[in-house]
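ugh ok fine here u go
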Amino acid sequence: MLSAAPRAQGELAKAGDDVPEHLRVALPPDAPRGALGAVLERSRRLCLVRYEKERFSERAYLDHYRRSRELSLSPEQLAVYAGAGLG
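structure:
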């Protein structure tokens, strides 16, 4: 991944101001211009998004169990899963 960064930066620098309309964002005054600036600003904004963990209610384990295709639990195991608050 680290070796890809200089190449990506070079490609973005080559693109110059050619940023598709749907990817354009307002850039801070001190940010690089063009495609490189747009990628850096979008990345910065993405990093600032706060992750909100889903509240685990008394019966939420059932929703999680139904969504999880890897779990196949016996009734005894499901009771332990429910009591452990995992998910």
